[in-house]
Amino acid sequence: MASPHKNPLTVTAIIVLVVLIVITSLIVANINFALRFPGGNVFMVHWLGFRKLITEGTSPYSQETLEAVQTFAQTSGLVNPKIDIGRIVYPLYSVLIYLPFALVKDFVLARALWMVVLELNLLLLAYLSMKLSGWKTNTIVLVFYYLFAVLFFHSVIPVESGNSAVLVAVFLAGGLLAVKNRADELAGVLFAFSAIKPQVVLFFSFFILIWSLRQRRQKIAIWFGFTLLLLILSSMLIQPDWIPQNLMEIFRYIQTGPVTNFQWALGEMLPGFGSRVGWAAAAVLVLLLMVEWGLAARFRFKGFLFGAIITLLANQWMGLPSDVSNLIVLFPAIPVIFEAWSRRWQRAGGLYILICLFSLLIVIYIMYFNSLNSGYPAQLTPIMFLPLPVFLYIALYWSRWWILQPDSDLALDAFRDEDQAFFE
């Protein structure tokens, strides 16, 4: 007589088959997209640069590599010719994430595979962010939330351009979740890997190191430093002098063109005084961070998480080189806000969250489409540096009391240490 229970092997086989079908479909769809719509400029620079390093031993920071990248951009017809091709300014250890794709000779296939990785990681980012915040919701809101995660402007742009900021966001969300679960070694490793784009996480890294040392959770700092040192030293086995070469490329990048950041964006929108307003905002944010870092230890995990998110948010306006694609690292802030709204308004909170998701999705796209005649590429459109950070600043500080309430889901006993002093 047949067992009424399903065979676990059969269920596993069905799941594996479905996953393979989905991934294959995504690859085919992305190949068609890459053939029809030239792009992936950011990915192309690193794919070709690291491919030359692997196959020819040519430094990715050399003039030869720069010329090869520019030639490919001008003759292949596979990337967007309207976007200036920049230099490789990532640290050499970022080759680890590009290595499997640099081994693929065909750019279209390599770009399609890279896009699949980024798309799947957007879903992972949405999942990790929910787990991090403790937010729970109904099925309708949940489905729309995951659709939002892949259709949001700041999700689509890094996927189209091939920006690794999506992976940085996943490393950050995973690291914060590891801190919540007291998996300090894993947290340190993940935070170190987020440094593949150092300018995106510079202030955040300082916050993590200071907080972990003052909270007697030194393992986070130790594993962060050990992993980062290992990445640097292993890169030196490939190219011993990569650090001075990388620094020279960064210097050339600064010398040869405007450094794109929040201050640059304001200067483009308000030529008379915009840049000065941006730098004044950065000075205010430094003072804000001093306060938030001092308060981060007083509310157990939720206080730490609030401080970490504010630091990530402030990092984007501190004058460091950036573009719109990097704002995807702010995604974990959204479920944190929604968790507070759900507790504050209960059933009505779901409706408010749906309205917020829909508004964010539509309004930001409207702002972008209205700026198409400006002549800027999507990831460098000045106005797009503003809407998401402004919304998050307002929503986070408006919801701050609810986020930090003792009955918050973020108040799980992740932190049991009573010694919470930070600047004593």
Could you report the average pLDDT, rounded to the nearest whole number?
A: 89
Q: What does the main sheet amount to?
A: none
Low-confidence stretches: 407-424
How far is the first residue's CA from the last residue's CA? 71 Å
The proportion of residues forming helix, as a percent range, comes to 55-70%
**Total count of strands:** 0
Number of helices: 19
- By secondary-structure content and strand pairing, the structural class works out as mainly alpha
Q: How do the SSEs run, as a string of H and E?
A: HHHHHHHHHHHHHHHHHHH
Summarize it.
The chain has about 425 residues and is mainly alpha-helical. It contains 19 helices and no strands.
Description of the structure:
This protein has 424 residues and is mostly helical. The chain is 69% helix and 0% strand. It has 19 helices and no strands. The chain has helices spanning 8-36, 41-56, 63-75, 95-102, 107-133, 139-151, 153-161, 165-180, 184-193, 198-214, 218-238, 242-256, 262-269, 274-295, 300-315, 333-345, 347-370, 387-398, 400-403. The longest helix has 29 residues, at 8-36. The relative contact order is 0.11. Mean pLDDT is 89; it is low at 407-424.
